[in-house]
């Protein structure tokens, strides 16, 4: 029996289920199609997942569109190609589109679903740890442009999400580590999430890091469930990032600049976020917003999961210019999320001169 977590969006009085289990993967297609009950559908599947699981999952070849891997694939050209394929196989307003893959597949597929026929049903099947705890939940869908990441998109909630932990067994080490960065992020923002329960994620990750790194599914299931519930507690109150949801961007403003300045070829998203979190801890400590003790235990947690601090010599002016084009920027003011106490963060403006003077940029 799968774990079922309900997402309720207060503003729209909308809800949808997230299912999490370790059932055999060859049962997944039947479960999804039974729940959908739609005669026509399209599956957008990442290239890696297709190579590993196409036969096991069993979706008919004509219903599958294979998307190459990598952030660079999340572009206008592929968006148009998927739309064209939707028309080719005759999808209509009663059809559905299913994303099977990581965050790139989920983002671009969701954007297609939000715009094709002015919106059709959308199902998320995240196959990476990062997608499971982050991008598959919350309804952000988008593509990248030459000016920045996720600059064209929508808030479009899925009909359902299916998380099967068996996908994580074949996840390569870099992608697994990338997902762990987002997991650790939740430990730093937990008390600001306004969740009903306090999970003590920081301490859980500190104590059980060896089991988690070994991919013990019992511990991964616990961690994923907590992260999802924390994100739901935020998204349900603030779907469109008007206030509370901004805390989920801890480490992301700097991370997106790193990804953009290297043309999305050097860092996975999670690795960039890990460097972004280091940047925010260093900056907050320089401003004396956090004390040395909290910075030390935060850094120790990051290091337990293999994340090290590193300074990059990218031109400060270029990094700043990229951050000023971030969706969260206002009138060229760079908005960032800073740590204040263990588990707490707050929104602030980046003082560019201070960031340069401190040597962080």
Task: For the structure shown, list the relevant keywords.
361 residues, 7-stranded mixed beta sheet, 11 strands
Write the layout of secondary structure elements.
Blueprint (H helix, E strand, L loop, with lengths): L2 E7 L4 E8 L6 H9 L4 E6 H11 L6 E4 L8 H13 L7 E6 L1 H13 L5 E6 L2 H7 L4 E6 L2 E8 L4 E5 L8 H17 L11 H7 L1 H5 L3 H19 L16 H10 L7 H18 L5 H13 L11 H9 L10 E7 L2 E6 L2 H6 L4
Parallel strand pairs: 2-9, 3-4, 3-5, 5-6, 6-9
Antiparallel strand pairs: 1-2, 7-8, 10-11
Helix pairs in contact: 3-4, 5-6, 5-9, 6-7, 6-11, 10-11, 10-13, 11-12
Biggest sheet overview:
7 strands, mixed
Overall pLDDT score: 94
The order of strands across the largest sheet is 1-2-9-6-5-3-4
Count of discrete alpha- or pi-helical segments spanning 4 or more residues: 14
Low-confidence stretches: none
Helix content: 40-55%
Distance between the termini: 50 Å
Structural class: alpha/beta
User: What's the β-strand tally?
Assistant: 11
Shape assignment: globular
In what range is the share of β-strand residues? 15-25%
Order of helices and strands: EEHEHEHEHEHEEEHHHHHHHHEEH
Whole-angstrom Rg: 20 Å
